[in-house]
Amino acid sequence: xxxxxxxxxxxxxxxxxxxxxxxxxxxxxxxxxxxxxxxxxxxxxxxxxxxxxxxxxxxxxxxxxxxxxxxxxxxxxxxxxxxxxxxxxxxxxxxxxxxxxxxxxxxxxxxxxxxxxxxxxxxxxxxxxxxxxxxxxxxxxxxxxxxxxxxxxxxxxxxxxxxxxxxxxxxxxxxxxxxxxxxxxxxxxxxxxxxxxxxxxxxxxxxxxxxxxxxxxxxxxxxxxxxxxxxxxxxxxxxxxxxxxxxxxxxxxxxxxxxxxxxxxxxxxxxxxxxxxxxxxxxxxxxxxxxxxxxxxxxxxxxxxxxxxxxxxxxxxxxxxxxxxxxxxxxxxxxxxxxxxxxxxxxxxxxxxxxxxxxxxxxxxxxxxxxxxxxxxxxxxxxxxxxxxxxxxxxxxxxxxxxxxxxxxxxxxxxxxxxxxxxxxxxxxxxxxxxxxxxxxxxxxxxxxxxxxxxxxxxxxxxxxxxxxxxxxxxxxxxxxxxxxxxxxxxxxxxxxxxxxxxxxxxxxxxxxxxxxxxxxxxxxxxxxxxxxxxxxxxxxxxx
Length: 544
Known about the structure:
The structure is a single chain. By secondary structure, the protein is mainly alpha-helical. Helix content is about 55%, strand content about 10%. The protein has helices spanning about 30-50, 55-65, 85-90, 130-150, 150-165, 180-190, 200-210, 220-235, 240-250, 260-270, 275-295, 305-315, 325-330, 335-355, 365-370, 385-395, 400-410, 415-430, 455-465, 465-475, 485-490, 495-500, 510-515, 525-540; strands spanning about 10-15, 25-30, 65-70, 75, 170-175, 375, 380, 445-450, 480-485. A three-stranded mixed β-sheet has the order 2-1-5. Strand 1 and strand 2 form a beta hairpin. Helix 11 (about 275-295) packs across helix 13 (about 325-330). It is globular and about 90 Å long.
């Protein structure tokens, strides 16, 4: 916070009074994240004082901001939801005074270093990585700033400024005697356009429905389940998940994010049985776990199962609209071979649509219709893979259209081109009976223009064609290969005779580069011929 600022507004914190005898106690309904983030900053500052061996200052911060102290007892100011208790007790609520005195939990990891923060021991209990990351982020930045200050007095002023900034934080508290009154207040806020996040509104509607139902005594249990759902989403797009999940329900409809709270409100209101409601939320949690895995952005590795490789390639193409269907398919189909086959077909479908410039706007409807093809059996759905494959073919460009667009496409330095050339490399390896090794990342294997992007004087002299004609051919697929990074940087704009020698292309281990070396010359006719050949191979690789 700027030293000149008088205050910093943190927003509205909404509470419900749940007083016990002699204790003012509240349940935080809205504002948990802001409170927890602030307490993690305070905890990082406290532990930095411990690293400086200034224990009195550390205990003073714990007492002032993290504990409620009266004549006979000491309480933690904030207790998180059950699922985060273990993490919080090891980072924030570290007082070991048995409710009577202030005595901070010792941690020998704390020291005056960038990574000298408190650690949470591995356990079978859930550890919230976001809480850890935030606490560590604050500690590292306090250390970095402190170390950058050379003057000892200025170092002390920096820490005092941090403490003073905590006193400048301001909030507005809304305290209600019961949850029903608070729900009405939330509705009033949303009706006036002061909206909470969509996922918070849906949570509010769920708990509102439960509080007015036959199982109103179970609000806390369902609040915990919803928190578990949010944790399962692990910072992924929760609104998109809720949209996709609704496509997988019996209603099987598509709604905008703005419409979702109202639709889920009606959906939850129709469930009047506690067991059914609990099963529904637990099912959502299972779907959320599948959803987050589908959006895995890690690099493909050789040990990945085939359907995981396919999904990663779909993500590489930026075509995640199919994950609504795949989320439901994976929930209902565990057979690995079936997953391999269907994801392979979807990968081919998505690639063909990209090459032929098909609109992405229809994809949600297409995959919603795929979900409609399932049939219900007891508490599960059954998919007929042949019907899915037929639907994939109906929604994909035919061979002639695909081949023509493949030939005439202007290929850039992007994920689609990189993906295409990788698939071609795997095809060549498979054709030669070799072991397919997953290619390294784009940092190690680059897109190489055999006829370089820059029309240099040497190439002008060799080809003797207009600039416009040159640019037309330079981005054809027949002029492109994958090439190891170190070789790619060394050849640059060289003529083909230089590029293909043993010191350059000759060092490559890639099959497509070895093919290129076999050409005696590189010109427009060669590019046309290779483009035609690659288009025929493309029909094999992405065959439907």
